[in-house]
Amino acid sequence: MSILAIVIPYYKLTFFEYTLQSLAKQTDQRFKVYIGDDASPENPVALIEKYKGKFDYDYHRFENNLGGFNLAEQWNRCVELTANEHWVMVLCDDDVLSENCVLEFYKNLEQINKNEINVVRFATDLIDEEGNKFKEIISHPTIEKATDFFIRRQNGGTRNSLSENIFKKEIVSKVKFKNFPLAWHSDDLALLEFSYFGNLFTINEALVYFRLSAINITNKKNNILEKSEGSFQFFYYLLHKHSTKFTFQENNIIQERLENNILQNKKNIKKWVSILSLYSRNFNFKGFLNLLWKLLQSIKKNNQL
User: Fold this and answer.
1) Cα separation of 295 and 12, whole Å?
2) Domain 4-211 falls in which CATH fold?
3) What is the pLDDT of residue 219?
4) What residue spans in the chain does CATH classification 3.90.550.10 cover?
5) Per-residue burial over 75-94, b = 16 or more CB atoms within 10 Å of its CB, e = otherwise
6) What's the whole-model pTM score?
7) Using CB atoms within 10 A of its CB, is residue 239 exposed (0-12), middle (13-18) or buried (19+)?
8) Using one digit for the tens of pLDDT, what is the confidence trace for 21-77?
9) Nearest partner of 167 among 142, 189, 183, judged by Cα
10) How far apart are CA 47 and CA 54, in angstroms?
11) Cα distance between residue 26 and residue 285, in whole Å
């Protein structure tokens, strides 16, 4: 029995065949695919059946659409489709794996286990709607502390997507993906929580290709407010739940991201109440006064324009 499950939360048919093709081309077939159809109006069954015998898979159609309002919970219920595998990759229905991803995972498994790693990731590149590669490959240190990666990401030095990671399944089942609007930053939080804020292991010899298209959440322009709310909830969650996992300087970076978000949404009373409550619980009254000062300076600057 394979120890690797590849879970696909399916909804869009447009690029799905490319995803399936990349699985059929894996040079190491020691994996099982679980496809969780989120009550999609685009039936994938005929396409999936073309790959019968090319790799091992189970297909399940959910009768209710969950991803439309809680995408992270759709990921969770798709993980629940798996059997006794020890590791799980949640592969989006438009992303693509290089032919050696599974092979390299098994080649590195002894070292992964030796270092007690719970989150494995691959190097990444971007592809467009026609499948053209951007050749903007992002690689990482072989072993890197999750919080160090998080800060690098906040400073614009790297990127992260759900598909490029393999997680220890027992941890995913226990901790679960947390939902923010559009699951915005839910994948970032997964790296932190599923690694227990420990080390990440990177396989730079294989690639996951993240697709940029007009129909994926990342590139859409009509969901800016939801993305902003997702960012606010993410940074708020980190300060509320995990501030002790970060250094003083790292907490300052998270706090700055949270404050910048609220200053871009000055009229959102709910956010102001939330941040006041957070700063009060942390006895960070100085921080709240500084935030009010930033607000006044921002209003003054806008009035002068």
Assistant:
1) 42
2) Spore Coat Polysaccharide Biosynthesis Protein SpsA; Chain A (3.90.550)
3) 63
4) 4-211
5) bbbbbebbeebebbbbbbbb
6) 0.93
7) buried
8) 999 999 999 999 999 999 999 999 999 999 999 999 999 999 999 999 999 999 999
9) 189
10) 13
11) 55
Q: Is beta strand 4-10 parallel, antiparallel or unpaired with respect to 87-90?
A: parallel
Are the C-beta atoms of 221 and 182 separated by less than 8 Å? no
Consecutive sets of 10 residues in the chain, 305 residues long: mean pLDDT of each?
Answer: 92 97 98 98 97 97 96 98 98 97 98 98 95 92 97 92 97 98 96 98 98 77 88 96 96 93 86 87 80 78 63
Q: Which two tokens stand for residue 233?
A: 């909830």
Cβ pair 117, 146 in contact under 8 A: no
Per-residue tokens: 138: 């992002």
Beta bridge partners of 10: 37
